[in-house]
Design brief:
globular, seven-stranded mixed sheet, binds NADP nicotinamide-adenine-dinucleotide phosphate, Rossmann fold, three-stranded parallel sheet
Length: 294
Amino acid sequence: MNDTTTAGTERAAVLDGTGLARRIRDRTAAGAAELTGRGVPPRLAVVVATDDDGAAWYVRSLSGAAGRLGIACDVVDLGADADAATLTGTLTRLSADDTVHGIVLQTPLPDGVRAEELAALIAPEKDVDGANPLSAGRLAAGLPAHPPATAAAVLELLDHHGIALAGRSAVVVGRSLVVGKPVAQLLLHRDATVSICHRHTKDLAEHTRHADVLVVAVGRIGLVRAEHVAPGAIVVDVGTNTAPDGRLVGDVDVEDAASRAGAISPVPGGVGPVTTALLLEQTVRSARASPGPR
Ligand code: NAP
């Protein structure tokens, strides 16, 4: 494993994501500057229709990160009571706008609005967070596609730390379209033997204990403890939860699981920063591939 620090004697190593994120941000900023010089300033649009605090925090942080890398970020805030017609019109307009290279449809969405139907309106080449069902289908078919940035970040983190995947047993806990399913697809494309667990899985630990690589994306504090982890297993914690004391924590009880795991990704500082960096890098790639002047 590269770039991996050890949390303590005979304790799990730390799969740090901050150094990797910095590296991705550096090359993204260089790409953005080059494109801007050629008259194609990269531009991301984030469509918001919620007053959820967590979403607001994420959008502010994404917009700030984009600005620091030289990527314009338009936050299109339609209000929490936006209807399907307004969202449809906005996504259609942005998809047709040649100066926009990436589109993110922020969740949650207003009640009664179907996320998948709206995401289908995002032009596939601008679907930098892999939300369009077409992107999911292409990913499943093994065709070139934008995977959701979080799923891509899990694989980048594993690669960065030199974790081999071919022939290894991988278990993904969670089956959302945003994380669980695309992570499972990406692991499968890398020749891991993949199982997916969810709410209805009987005896979760019985499954997860067989994992060489365990990816947890649920949203439940302390779901995964030592009893869920095989000795020496690699654990990627995608969960982001707010603890009662206000701290950001993952789904893994790190204190407990670190006594058995070989390595664990921290929260914060693991998958999260890599996700944001990859989403912005994808925006620059889309700008480079766009029909504007190059
Ligand atoms: P989600 O849509 O709510 O999906 C959660 C999944 O966990 C579902 O598939 C659910 O199963 C499963 N699940 C719930 N309770 C379970 C249990 N007791 N045992 C096993 N599986 C269980 O959430 P999400 O959008 O995938 O996000 C998951 C977590 O990742 C959240 O904490 C979120 O904040 C975090 N996240 C982080 C990033 C990042 O960049 N770091 C990005 C996105 C999400 P069912 O399908 O059966 O209901």
